[in-house]
Amino acid sequence: MRGRLCVCVVAATLGLGGVTSAAVANDRGDAAQRLLERVQPPTPVQSGATGASNATPPDLGAGTWALTLPSNVGWDARGDNCCGYERAGDITTMQAVNTEDLIEIGLTSAFFDNPVSSYNWRAWPLGDPGWFGPTGIVFGIDTSGDLFGDYMAFFLNDGAQTVGTVTPYGQPDNILCFATPRVDGATGLLAVSFPSSCIGTPQTFRMWAFFYYETATTISEDDTEWSGEVRQIPKGYWMLGLEGRVHAFGNVKHYGDGTLFSVDMDSTTSGRGYWIVDVFGRVTNRGEASNFGNTPPLVPGERATSIARDPHRWGGFWVFSSIGRVFGFNGAPNYGDLDRVPLNGEIIDAIPTPTGEGYYMVGSDGGVFAFGDARFYGSMGGIPLNAPVQSLVPDPDGEGYWLVASDGGVFAFNAAFRGSMGNVRLNRPVTGMVPFGNGYLMVGEDGGIFNFSDQPFFGSLGATPPPLPIVSVASAL
Hints:
single chain; mainly beta; Neuraminidase; 2 domains; three-stranded antiparallel β-sheet; 29 strands; 6% helix
C-alpha cells in the first residue's frame, strides 16, 4: 500500500486528474520516505539461473549502450501478491538504451495496449479504496554502482494523459526533468525517454521497476527485484592478419588471436567476441564467442574462405568454402550451396542478409549467388574486370548490395554509391569489405582502412604495415 500512496503524490504534482488535493495533503508529509521504503534496490545476486552477476560493471564512459533483459533472465518477476490482487509475470522484459544524448528505459507487458483507449488505464481502481493514484511505473536507477538508488523515473497515466518525470531517488516532488512516455501496442513496451544530462554521465547503470495498474476486474502490482547491468556497446573494428594476429580499433577489445593461415573473422552480435577461421576450416572462438567445433574435413583443393555470424540466431554462424559449400553452426540453417556447381571463379566471400534468413556468396569473377531471402540484383560475372572481386556487402535495408574489387573499385547494385578507391593508387590491394553504418569499410593488405559511411574512422595500420598481409576486417557496428 505504501507504493500506491506515493505514486498518487507524484500524480498530484504533475497535475493528473483523479487525485484530490486533500488526499495528497494527507500523505505528502511522509511520501518520499514511503516511496523509498517501497522502491528499494534489489539485493545483489550471483550469476546462475537468474542471470548475470550484479558485480560492478565496467565503466560506460561516453557513447552508446543498451540493455535488454529477456523474460525470466536477470531478475525475478516474483508476483508480490501483497493485497490479493496480484497477477504474476506482468513484466516480461526490461530494457535501457542510451543514444549519446538521450536515455530511454522501459518494460514490456503482455497485458497492455494504447493507454488512452484501454480499460487498463484508469485513475480509480475497482474495489480498492486505498489506491489513490493512476496507473504507473516507477523505475529505480543506480548510476554510481553502489547498489543504492540515485534517480527515479516515472511513467504515469490516468486514462486522459500520460506523463513522465525524473527525480532524485526518494524525492518524487523534486523534478529534475520531464520525460517523454512511449507506448508500443504491438510489443507491449511502456517506456520513458529523457536527456542523458538529466542524470549526469553515468559510469554504470542499473535499473529495476515497480508496476501498478488495474484491469476490468483486478488491481495488480508487479515488482522486479534484480538490477540489470548495462555495458557500453562496442564501436569499432578489428583487422585479421594471415598469421592470425588480431588488431583492434575504436573501443572494441582484443580478445585473442587466431591460427596461422587465418582467412576471415566475424564478431558476435554483442561485439564482445569473435570467431576466426583458417584456410583448413578450423574455427577459433574468442571473448563471448562460443566454441562449436570446426568444419568437416575439406576435399582436396577446397579451402575455407569466409565466416559469417547468423544475425537472427544468437551464437550461430556459417563457414563457406572456396567451392561454395556451406557449414552451419549452432542452428544456422543451410539455405543452399554451390557444391558440384561449375564456377568461373572460386567463392571468396559470403555474408548473410540483414534478417539472417539468407545469404550471398560472391566469386572472384564477380558472380553473385543468392540463397534464402537474399535477392539477386545483378553481378559482375562475365564482365571483364581490372581486378578480382573480393567482397560483397548488403546495404542496410537489404534491398541491394555493393561489390568491391582488389583495386578498390566498388560496384553498386540497387544501393547508393558511397565512394570507392578505384581511381586511387593503392600501396597494397584491398582484401576485404564489411558493412559499416550506412555504407561500407574496406581494408587493404597493409592494414589501410577506407571508410565510406556515416561512422567515424577509428584508425588503421597503413602507416605501420604488418610483416604479413591483413586478410580480413570485421565491424562491431
